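Bench log. Compound arrived from synthesis this morning; before running ITC I wanted a structural hypothesis for how 2,5-dideoxy-2,5-imino-D-mannitol sits in the protein. Inputs:
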Amino acid sequence: MAQSWAFFLLVVLCFCCVSDLICGSNGERVFLYPQSQKVSSIVSQRYRTAYHFQPPKNWINDPNGPMYYNGIYHEFYQYNPNGSVWGNIVWGHSVSTDLINWIPLETAIARDTPSDINGCWTGSATILPGNRLVIIYTGADPEKRQVQNIVVPKNMSDPYLREWTKAGNNPVIQPVGPGLNSGQFRDPTTGWVGPDGLWRIAVGAELNGDSAALLYKSKDFLNWTRVDHPLYSSNSSSMWECPDFFAVLPGNSGGLDLSAAIPNGAKHVLKMSLDSCDKYMIGVYDLKSDSFIPDTVLDDRRLWLRIDYGNFYASKSFFDSKKGRRIIWGWTNETDSSSDDVAKGWAGIHAIPRTIWLDSHGKQLLQWPVEEVESLRGNEINHQGLELKKGGLFEIKGTDSFQADVEIDFELTSIDKADPFDPSWLLDVEKHCREAGASVNAGIGPFGLVVLASDNMEEHTAVHFRVYKSEQKYMILMCSDLRSSSLRPGLYTPAYGGFFEYDLEKEKKISLRTLIDRSAVESFGGSGRVCIMARVYPVAVVDGVAHMYAFNNGSATVRVPQLRAWSMRRAQVNVKGME
Ligand code: DQQ
């Protein structure tokens, strides 16, 4: 065991140098709409996920209009019906009763009117009084201006709501007014009722060169006027995509319906998509000024909180009245090449839907996979009382290592050895994860999980923690390091990372949950404080056997009081013939 770990260290060190050259060290980001790269295509259908959401074929991006309505969950999505790269975008549609198994339906919104002829882009659903349902979405018109359109269900006796009727007065909102960029005006939110009893929505926009969530109001959801000030705007960037606005109660994992009465003590969250990731601010919706007021304004947007520190974008949340929770969905792109995607015939998945709520201090959102995903758990492996000394490596055997759900608690035997925290790391956590890799020893950590590892560890993905001592508190670094995830060159293989504060005096355990689904490695650290979604395309293990290990490369011994792992069954995700 010691020998193989030493080999691992050597290979990691060597390969990291090589992959740094491939990846660059400038915080390169996920390819949102991948450009063709000059790499040959190595395609395996084994990369196709078994329980993450995706249509039978072709390209998908943002989740759209998620909702629970009359006993059915609906998931719409940005979809190219003609291929596996972005383009010709319409709204795909699937329905479910458990958020895990999905039935594919026909296109819900097609590009067939002047106000959406160049694309039916992202939007949201709102349930109006009397259980009336309406969807508002962005259309790209013949001049490629972005306008907002309405659709309503055509046949209310169809439980799946397969067909949708476009409003006669579409577009209901046009990009007019001084300083508004008509090509950067999109992605309307779910509606809520404001202080004057009128409906409100926010639309992502570029206004006078700043990014803004523009505020519109309406009596009937059909006729809209722009409020003279945005819900919120910032000069730290020039456009926000996919704003999401919702209410949360600190320390309460139950969700709130933004159009119902909001209890005292509730906070509001404004999420925005920019810089290839989803960021958010916590604050209040001030009824007097009819605007969002963040608790803290950080000028440097690299320091803004993130929904996920990996490959996760354009997320959208909804209130699930069935279980009284808020659920968030996000899009995860491929990180292979567009020629691979053409060869595979598909591109893009959605992360597992997550319950989202606010921690008891009102400082950050917490997320956890919806409990329904546990219905896929098969045989369970259970270990207790493991001890991982420096260099310790424990192989987790007995599960399907390509389709697994793993939960590990790491318990620190002492916290005295924590190295000092340097706040400048917060400006580029990926850089810090590259420097502080899984094989680089520190006082406490790195310890964590290695997944999809080949026999000799030359190919593996490491998800790990390190503990640092800041002035009053402890800061935990969580990394998901993809630099050795594949021997194949030309992939996007960053070392994702995020920090969270932790009261280590009180809670000596740090938890990690990782969902492995063929080319998806989705991790939740510190009980959902940092989430990291990643895509991997191993070649050495893809048609063989993959190994999974718990490890510790820190000086301080780490205990594992509990380790559980399950093989995950395949879900019925949009299987053809189910409709
Ligand atoms: N995707 C949509 C836009 C949105 C972007 C187009 C975010 O509406 O701004 O497919 O990924």
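What the model suggests: The pocket of 2,5-dideoxy-2,5-imino-D-mannitol is lined by residues 61-62, 78, 89, 121-122, 138, 186-187, 241-242, 273, 313-314 (CB under 6 Å). The chain has two domains: 58-334+348-369, 384-568.
ITC booked for Thursday regardless.
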